[in-house]
Amino acid sequence: METLIKQLTRARKFLTDDDDYSIIYSITDKQLIKRYFLNYKKIIIDDCINAMRSYAEYKSSYKPKDSEYPNTDYYYKIVLEIEINDSSEDDIKNMIFLHSLFRIKRMSKSKEIVINSYDDVIRIFENQTPQKWYRGHSDSSWQLLPSFFRDIQEKQIEFNYNLLVDDYKKKKILEKMNTIMNANKIDYRFFSYVQHSLGYGPFLDFSKSPQVAFSFTLSNRENVSLFFHKPSCLYELDTTNLPIIHSRSDINRRLKKLNISVFKSKASIEQIIKSSMWENLLNNTLESEIFLCDYQSNDRMRYQKGAFVLFNNVLIIGNRMLMSFKKQDILNQSLTKYIFPEDIHLTLYHSFLDKYPQYHIRFLMDPYSYMRE
């Protein structure tokens, strides 16, 4: 039977093998290691068990008779070893790292369905309900992360409303917006206009129309290297169990209370577990919030049947977002990810636009051009 540390190392490598972000495996503060392990021992052990179970199930899916991977009883034996024996510092560091990775990896779990024909796409359209919102990605590997947080250069920031406004000032967005609207009044109307005109803001764009969102999955038609070599995807969000805000003043109030911690990729585990946001989410002393903003503030947004999702009390690590477990479970259960293999893109593109020419990407970006044609 493999040693505990071997099992932990295997599971840790499994969690990092297919990721497009980099977390540095580095914890040098010995007092932090001891204190963190003592404070969160039960959580760490539970996360390690779940991570190793996921690893074993993954392996057994194509090596079902391979006795190298333990059964469920062995997980409890591991727990016993951890609790009874004096674990080495390396064992504890491995457990902390595995527990951290398990939580980070858990951010992007949702039901996935591979679509193989345009008939399957039609079925998605036909199953549309008022409770479903949609978002299209021309690259299925992209995470659900608001555009503002993709561009942050600082290694670590505590993000709030004032920082958002300062960033818009530094980029001279406020100055440019003064030619269009009164930029002295920075509110939801301002942020939504910038997001829809520049693709830059704290919200995650969705549409109530699957056709609009599907057009964005195929929006890179001119980029041959992506269109023919990268699968795309469509996210379907069931909003039934999530709060929807219809009032502009309510959205403004939520924006003023933004509280988000951000680590760019290549952050060390030591930095992450020292974060107050990490500890608050771990302790359940802070509940993450997901708000669905259903207020269309400009013509492009109306044409796209647009809506926004706003996150609060979350921790962003690289390109992933960590929430309190309860909220993450609700989001994961509400999301379905439809994946479109690259070899059917061209067929989907022509079939879709033959039926829905009004949803060509150029019309979605400039709705007035559709009226002129």
- Percent of residues in helices comes to 40-55%
Radius of gyration based on Cα positions: 23 Å
How many DSSP-defined strands?
12
Q: What's the quaternary structure here? A: single chain
Q: Mean pLDDT, as a whole number? A: 85
What attributes does this structure have?
single chain; 12 strands; 373 residues; 15% strand; 20 helices; alpha/beta
Description:
The chain contains 20 helices and twelve strands. Mean pLDDT is 85; it is low at 64-70. The termini are far apart. A four-stranded mixed beta sheet has the order 1-12-5-2. A four-stranded mixed beta sheet has the order 3-7-10-11. A four-stranded mixed beta sheet has the order 4-9-8-6. By secondary structure, the chain is α/β, with parallel strands linked by helices. Strand 10 and strand 11 (320-322) form a beta hairpin. The protein has helices at residues 4-17, 30-39, 41-60, 72-84, 89-105, 118-126, 147-150, 161-170, 173-177, 188-198, 210-217, 224-227, 248-256, 269-274, 276-283, 299-303, 325-334, 345-355, 361-365, 367-372, and strands at residues 111-114, 132-137, 156-159, 204-207, 232-238, 244-245, 260-263, 289-293, 306-312, 314-317, 320-322, 335-340. The chain has two domains: 4-107, no CATH class; 110-372, no CATH class. The radius of gyration is 23 Å and the shape is globular.
Topology:
Blueprint lengths: L3 H14 L12 H10 L1 H20 L11 H13 L4 H17 L5 E4 L3 H9 L5 E6 L9 H4 L5 E4 L1 H10 L2 H5 L10 H11 L5 E4 L2 H8 L6 H4 L4 E7 L5 E2 L2 H9 L3 E4 L5 H6 L1 H8 L5 E5 L5 H5 L2 E7 L1 E4 L2 E3 L2 H10 E6 L4 H11 L5 H5 L1 H6 L1
Helix pairs in contact: 1-3, 1-5, 2-5, 3-4, 3-5
